[in-house]
Amino acid sequence: MSGPSTTLKAFKETEKIATERSLVSLFSVFSVFSVFNFQK
Q1: For 5, which DSSP code?
Q2: What distance in Å separates the CA atoms of residue 21 and residue 11, rounded to the nearest whole number?
Q3: pTM, entire model
């Protein structure tokens, strides 16, 4: 009983980390893009 639930918990944790990483990378790309736009 504890096996599948821990696997599901680990999967949700991994999914959360992946979502946070993609948000961070998206934000960094956006900030770099904004800096280039402001310099023109």
Answers
A1: H
A2: 15
A3: 0.58
Cα–Cα distance, 9 to 3 (Å, whole number): 10
CA–CA separation, 15 and 37 (whole Å)? 33
Average pLDDT value over all residues in the chain: 90
The number of residues in the chain equals: 40
Which three-class secondary structure state does DSSP give residue 40?
coil
What is d(CA 20, CA 5) in angstroms, rounded to the nearest whole number?
23
Quote the tokens at residue 4.
């599948």
Tell me how far apart the terminal alpha carbons of the chain are, to the nearest angstrom.
Answer: 60
CA pair distance 40, 33, nearest whole angstrom = 11
